[in-house]
Amino acid sequence: MYGPENPEKINISKKKPFFPVTDGMREYLTYYSRKIDLPVKYEDLLHFNISIPVYDKNGKDTLWETALYAPTEVNTIHEGLKQIYSILKTEGQSRVHRHLTVEKVDYCSFGNSNPFRIKIVNNINDNYDYFYIKRVDASRIYGLELEHILSPSRINYFVDEATLVEEHIAGIPGDHFIDVYLNNPEFNKVRIAKELVKFNYRCFVRLLGDMRAYNYVFDITPDFEEVQFRIRAIDFDQQSFEGRKNMYLPQFFKENYPLVKLVQELIAKESIDQYQLEEKSLITRRIKAANKQLNALLDNMCADTISLPEKVVQLREELSAHYSNDRFLKANSMGELVRKSLEMVQ
């Protein structure tokens, strides 16, 4: 059986503590060109005068607020944000951001990272894009790096002291996809179910937690015959923090049950095994291709503290039981558990 018949309510830590970035990890970020000097910092964006709630087209509160800045500050802030966008997209070539406008800066007081979402508009063709500025958290950086190295998608982000800048990951939010698109007759549900199996496996082996439906997106690509689907994580705050094994398996979250039900109805166990083996092979190739970088990352992660001692103990015991392997019991950090989990893939 893939997933429970009646998914349990899994309690995620509501306010995960922030963990500082170690000196060793900052050296890693510098070596791999993730550390740069930014013209606008997270703290600068906190100096807004007032904020206005943002509602969706149905009048529902999105939990985002549009931040409004004093006239004496807004030009400097907007110019700095345009420079950051050009750094993300073109390595900072100034001629690119001359025709850009910052349409709005939104702030989210809900969740761990309290991000700012910046909407950038191209004045020539009115095309728009987003990027995010957040507080630095070691857990999230490890999550971003593991996603960049081990997933099918590349991640573009930069760090400057206490500020984290991330590009927007485009796609349909998982909860919206389930509500609106899941029963689209033009979509092959077998392909949707297959992608959940592969996404579920990716999250588990690299210990990315809290993949409820609103923490990932569906990337939909038309193919010459049918539509292709890829599920991409967009929230990395819960990288290797929780102690319960099921936290790292999206199949056990009740928000994902409509997708789990598709797997149960449409995918035979033999096919599930096949899809997991396919994903395992792809991850193995990525590990070999980025072996030096991955080991440098895991060396820092193993020496770092990104969870609570009792959660490390709980997870190592549950993973040991899951794999029937006592090697997990020797781990003393979440980084060591990630390394041992990846060793099971190779």
Could you give a short description of this structure?
This protein has helices at 23-31, 42-45, 71-90, 138-150, 174-181, 189-205, 257-266, 269-289, 291-303, 309-323, 334-345; strands at residues 50-55, 61-68, 100-108, 116-122, 128-135, 157-160, 163-167, 172-173, 216-222, 227-233. It has 346 residues and is α+β, with helices and mostly antiparallel strands.
Description of the structure:
The protein has 346 residues and is of the alpha+beta class. The chain folds into two domains: 24-135, no CATH class; 172-345. It has eleven helices and ten strands. The two termini are 25 Å apart. The model has no long low-confidence stretch (mean pLDDT 92).
What secondary-structure arrangement, pairings included, does this model have?
Elements: H1 23-31, H2 42-45, E1 50-55, E2 61-68, H3 71-90, E3 100-108, E4 116-122, E5 128-135, H4 138-150, E6 157-160, E7 163-167, E8 172-173, H5 174-181, H6 189-205, E9 216-222, E10 227-233, H7 257-266, H8 269-289, H9 291-303, H10 309-323, H11 334-345
Helix pairs in contact: 4-9, 6-7, 6-8, 9-11
